[in-house]
């Protein structure tokens, strides 16, 4: 056997390339500081090793080699796998050949902590709609990060993670066969530790279950408290029948029109998929798709490897208080206002050490470009923020007061929903509203006709949005008129049924034969009613939100209805594009990074989104019973999703300070928050807070914990104890750099020193 070994120098590390040439066999070995992979002559990864320990541990299953990159034919729903591979050490390019005759050139550049891969070219790609990186199969069975694509073994004996990150907007977490580029919201069966949480005999790994409830109430979605019911917010990581975790990213050709059969929650009668035309986007293709593929010790992966990728590759790097928003020391709760009185809200937040006030009791902020971003009028004449003495302030005036204390204020928008009465929706609808289907008028109609004949009835029987199938939002647009209808006749001549002309205050007018009829893509009801913009108008909505911040002093958003960003069929790409446009516009206007939470978390928002405080109360964390979700499993479900995906866990809008509140209650809340790496929105009603006898002591306790958290003073072994609900703790501040952590008796009495804490270097 002839043996040739070539060593390459790249970014201060040694990259080994090994070629074994007997009988045409060759393989390529590449290394980072922490990770070694071997790619065989067919283009499959056959070895993934942790090289930080000796002997090196193998994470590639013997029976499941991983294709470096596969091609997806959407029309045939067929994957094409590589059959031959060769790597040029000089060019650092892997050439892959496929069964359909395609040849791909993939750049593989080993960096110190990750492999940077990029698709340079692909031949014979006429029938290829998407490419997929992987799936990269591992033998890890512990935690799956389905949003960002990571496979984690958090045990002390293994302590290793393998993951991917997209390096451009059109590379998305998940598999190429997902309709609408947003994976179904559902449960799968997966035990993170079979010895502690064995599966019942009637369940098996990877089994899929629908959500709970009727599919409309989002609280009822969360219906399984068992630890082996894992809710899924993506499919960038999946499990096989043995519980082994695989990770995938994909990139799609968005230049041509296509149709998807889409629902984010497809397994429920109230959320059946709809047929949706997807808007072509010129210049957005899978050529240039790029990922970072990495492996490292799990305990340091986020702050060492993931942060390194984000910074070196120029990915979004929002900061709060001088720290990356993914740094656990940057996690901080927010104030959530209740009661409509603002005399003391800034003072409360300042005393607590919190950095944001969400004006939740002001209701929804709808995107209305008609006001040019002046939500209180061009002269800020509207004063919605009331004080007990009868005075009031505009958002801008209140924001200026808050800024003196390094506190920002924010509102809750309905993301991209174009509500009735706003500039782009009605009474004169924009021509940039997106649609599910496009048809032609078979006959001309005057302003009063309700017999509307169409050339083709296909899919016009589908009701409104896939989400709840809201009958009141079953809308078509012809010219500048909105028309409501329900149903379509089953035989020729085909006509719309139950027609209402001039819907949402639009003007009923004459329309000619062969005028275009658009069945609009919409949102849901319950106050979220709206139309979905096309991608260009959505760009303008994103910029509008940055303008609102610049004009009115806002720096925080709670994007309710965030899943509406998926409704145009572009899924996570749509979300990435929306938040990129908002952040770029904010930068143009000289603003700091906008802090935001929202109704969901996706691979599209992961980099930009600071926190995820959705829901609240006993559904998220019950401080009295000390459990994650006593009313539903929402707390457990969202905790597991966030933790597995290196994201701050959310406790929601919660823990109001009332006349019955005690210091011990908030000591426990903060211990759990620090231990799990969580945030929450503290509900503060001024009247209730002032009725609390222990108000000042509660404020002091919360501030003490927040000071220590920001100092990164809690080592991992302490955090493991803090999350034990059977234990109670008290934290006392000695000076700005030192704290004493005490453990209390079960009844809250007495205290025994548990650990001395010190500010970490660099914090």
Keywords:
alpha+beta; eight-stranded antiparallel beta sheet; eight-stranded parallel beta sheet; 16% helix
Structural class by SSE content = alpha+beta
What's the total number of strands?
45
Number of helices: 10
> Share of helix among residues?
10-25%
% residues in beta strands: 25-35%
- Cα separation of the termini: 55 Å
- How does the major sheet shape up? 8 strands, antiparallel
Account of the 3D structure:
The structure is a single chain. With 763 residues, the protein is α+β, with helices and mostly antiparallel strands. Helices cover 16% and strands 30% of the residues. It has 10 helices and 45 strands. Strands 10-11-12-13-26-17-16-15 form an 8-stranded antiparallel sheet. Strands 29, 30, 31, 34, 39, 40, 41 and 42 form an 8-stranded parallel sheet that branches. Strands 8, 9, 14, 18, 22 and 23 form a 6-stranded antiparallel sheet that branches. β39, α5 and β40 form a beta-alpha-beta unit. The protein starts with a strand and ends in a 5-residue tail after the last strand. The model is unreliable at 1-25 (pLDDT under 50).
């Amino acid at each position: 056997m002839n043996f040739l070994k070539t060593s390459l120098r790249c970014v201060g590390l040694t990259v080994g390339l090994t070629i074994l040439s007997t009988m045409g066999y060759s393989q390529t070995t590449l290394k980072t500081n922490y990770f070694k992979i071997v790619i065989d002559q067919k283009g499959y990864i056959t070895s993934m090793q942790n090289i930080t320990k000796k002997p090196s541990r193998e994470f590639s299953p013997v029976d499941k080699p991983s294709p470096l990159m596969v091609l997806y034919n959407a029309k045939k729903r067929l994957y094409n796998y590589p059959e031959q591979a060769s790597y040029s050490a000089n060019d650092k390019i892997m050439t892959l050949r496929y069964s359909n005759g395609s040849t791909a050139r993939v750049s593989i550049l080993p960096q110190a902590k990750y492999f940077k891969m990029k698709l340079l070219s692909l031949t014979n790609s006429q029938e290829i709609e998407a490419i997929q990186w992987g799936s990269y199969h591992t033998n890890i069975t512990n935690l799956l990060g389905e949003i960002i694509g990571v496979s984690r073994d958090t045990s002390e004996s293994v302590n290793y993670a393998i993951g991917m990150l997209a390096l451009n907007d059109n590379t998305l977490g998940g598999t190429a066969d997902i309709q609408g580029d947003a994976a179904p919201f559902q449960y799968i069966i997966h035990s993170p530790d079979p010895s502690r949480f064995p599966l019942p005999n009637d369940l098996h790994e990877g089994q899929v279950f629908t959500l709970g409830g009727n599919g409309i109430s989002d609280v009822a979605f969360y219906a399984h408290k068992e630890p082996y019911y894992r809710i899924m917010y993506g499919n960038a990581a999946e499990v096989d029948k043995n519980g082994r975790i695989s990770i995938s990213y994909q990139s799609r050709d968005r230049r041509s029109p296509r149709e998807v059969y889409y629902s984010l929650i497809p397994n429920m009668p109230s959320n059946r998929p709809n047929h949706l035309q997807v808007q072509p986007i010129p210049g957005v293709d899978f050529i240039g798709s790029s990922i970072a593929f990495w492996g490292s010790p799990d305990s340091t992966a986020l702050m060492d490897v993931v942060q390194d990728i984000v910074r070196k590759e120029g990915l979004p790097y929002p900061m709060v208080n001088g720290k990356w928003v993914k740094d656990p020391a940057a996690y901080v709760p927010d104030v959530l206002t209740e009661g409509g009185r603002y005399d003391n809200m800034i003072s409360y937040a300042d005393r607590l050490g919190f950095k944001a006030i969400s004006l939740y009791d002001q209701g929804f902020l709808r995107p209305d470009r008609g006001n040019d971003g002046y939500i209180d009028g061009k002269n800020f004449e509207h004063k919605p923020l009331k004080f007990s003495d009868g005075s009031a302030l505009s958002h801008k005036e209140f924001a200026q007061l808050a800024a003196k204390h390094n506190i920002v204020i924010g509102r809750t928008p309905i993301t991209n929903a174009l509500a009735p009465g706003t500039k782009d929706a009605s009474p004169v609808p924009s021509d940039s509203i997106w649609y599910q289907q496009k048809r032609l008028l078979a006959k001309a109609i005057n302003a009063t006709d309700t017999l509307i004949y169409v050339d083709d009835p296909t899919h016009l029987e589908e009701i409104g949005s896939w989400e709840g199938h809201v009958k009141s939002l079953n809308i078509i647009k012809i010219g500048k008129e909105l028309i409501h209808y329900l149903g379509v006749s089953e035989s020729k001549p085909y006509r719309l049924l139950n027609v209402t002309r001039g819907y949402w205050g639009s003007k009923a007018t004459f329309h000619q034969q062969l005028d275009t009829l658009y069945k609009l893509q919409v949102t849901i009801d319950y106050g979220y009613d709206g139309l979905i913009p096309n991608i260009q108008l959505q760009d303008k909505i994103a910029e509008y939100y940055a303008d609102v911040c610049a004009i009115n002093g806002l720096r925080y958003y709670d994007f309710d209805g965030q899943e509406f960003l998926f409704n145009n069929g572009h899924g996570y790409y749509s979300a990435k594009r929306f938040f990129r446009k908002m952040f770029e516009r904010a930068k143009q206007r000289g603003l700091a990074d906008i802090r935001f939470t929202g109704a969901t978390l996706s691979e599209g928002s992961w980099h930009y989104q600071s926190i995820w405080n959705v829901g609240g109360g006993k559904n998220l964390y019950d401080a009295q019973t000390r459990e994650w979700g006593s009313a539903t499993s929402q707390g457990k479900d969202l905790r597991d999703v966030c933790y597995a995906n290196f994201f701050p866990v959310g406790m929601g809008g919660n823990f109001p300070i009332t006349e019955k509140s005690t210091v011990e209650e908030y000591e426990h809340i903060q211990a759990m928050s620090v231990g799990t790496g969580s945030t929450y929105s503290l509900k503060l009603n001024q009247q209730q807070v002032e009725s609390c006898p222990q108000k000042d002591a509660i404020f002091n306790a919360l501030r003490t914990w927040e000071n220590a958290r920001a100092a990164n003073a809690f080592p991992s072994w302490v955090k493991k104890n803090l999350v034990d609900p059977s234990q109670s703790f008290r934290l006392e501040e000695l000076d700005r750099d030192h704290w004493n952590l005490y453990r209390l008796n079960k009844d809250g009495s007495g205290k025994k020193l548990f650990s001395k804490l010190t500010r970490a270097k660099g914090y």
